[in-house]
Design a protein that fits this description.
316 residues, alpha/beta, Rossmann fold, UDP-galactose 4-epimerase, domain 1, 10 helices, globular
């Protein structure tokens, strides 16, 4: 099978590439000329990289022509929620126009690949207490420009499925983490700071809102879910939650990591890490996806966070 992964140099993209290589598939990936390739350095000789910005329609056309993929995983995005507040225009352009370019290129192509549109739990946004755990049928009330961009990409994918018969699968993954997670994301920020404190390079750990509740899954379980989503024809044309179904306060994530720390340390709130509006609770229901594919997350959160901490210990 030939697989095209947009955003292959990113956190999830690199893990997904490794997953397909282990299966023996041919892996193509798009990258911007300025993208860091640290995440894929061990596998660069096994994948075919295509320099391409997803906002460039011509470049996307050429990437799909060159790879002739059986499957497209569209992961490339501006995925950091706080950055969408700082630069909403760029977030909307990258995430919406990037998705549109993929869909248009696939529509014009002579083959009909399965296209995975990577959505987000941030699409749900303002969730009411009686709506937990969140099902796919829940109203979408995004609370950030990022959430709005993902709602639009999600609905574009379904529209192209209904209008043109494209084989679209939309996933709405809840929080996922693990080795290689960018240090701007909360669990990875905590782990990196602890590694720095252990090395004597930082005195205390800085944090934002610790009261938010999130549903965490290991990235390695998530990429298996992404494969099962494109491998099962019953998933075509559907929007599917990928999640563990269990919520953790961010303070609990910090407590787990504290237990693995080699030194004691103090914590301090950093107002720059807070958002204009924050989703208070996101806990998902993945029963639909499980019923279609038999998927279940297998890696305990404690193991995920320890692997993440050890990753940062190796980096520092």
């Amino acid at each position: 099978m030939k697989v095209l992964i947009t955003g292959i140099t990113g956190f999830v993209g690199s893990h997904l590439a490794e997953f397909y290589l282990k299966k023996g598939d041919s892996v193509f990936g798009t990258k911007r000329w300025r993208s860091r390739v640290d995440n894929i350095l061990p596998i660069t000789d096994q994948i075919k990289l295509i320099e391409c910005d997803v906002t460039d329609a011509y470049a996307i056309d050429k990437a799909i022509e060159q790879s002739e993929p059986d499957v497209i995983h569209h992961l490339a995005a501006q995925s950091f929620v706080p950055a969408s507040w700082a630069n909403p225009k760029s977030t909307l352009e990258t995430n919406i126009i990037g998705t549109l370019n993929i869909l248009e290129a696939a529509r014009k192509a002579k083959f009909n690949p399965v296209i995975h549109i990577c959505g987000s739990s941030e699409e749900y946004g303002l969730v009411k207490p009686d709506e937990i755990p969140i099902k796919e049928s829940n109203p979408l009330r995004p609370l950030s420009p990022y959430g709005v961009s993902k709602v639009t990409s999600d609905l574009l994918g379904i529209q192209y499925h209904l209008s043109y018969g494209l084989k679209i699968v939309v996933t709405r993954a809840f929080n996922h983490t693990g080795p290689r997670r960018g240090d701007v994301f909360v669990s990875s920020s905590f782990a990196k700071q602890i590694a720095l404190i252990e090395k004597g390079k930082q005195e205390k750990l800085n944090h934002g809102n610790l009261d938010a509740i999130r549903d965490f899954t290991d990235v390695r379980d998530v990429v298996e879910a992404y494969y099962l989503a494109i491998d099962n024809s019953d998933c075509i044309g559907k929007q599917l939650n990928i999640c563990s179904g269990k919520g953790y306060k961010i303070s609990e994530i910090l407590d787990i990591l504290k237990n693995y720390a080699k030194v004691e340390f103090e914590t301090s709130i950093d107002e720059s890490r807070t958002r204009p509006s924050d989703v208070p609770i996101l806990i998902g229901n993945s029963d639909l996806f499980k019923s279609l594919t038999g998927w279940t997350p297998n890696i305990p959160l404690e193991e995920t966070l320890l692997d993440l901490l050890n990753y940062w210990r190796e980096q520092i």
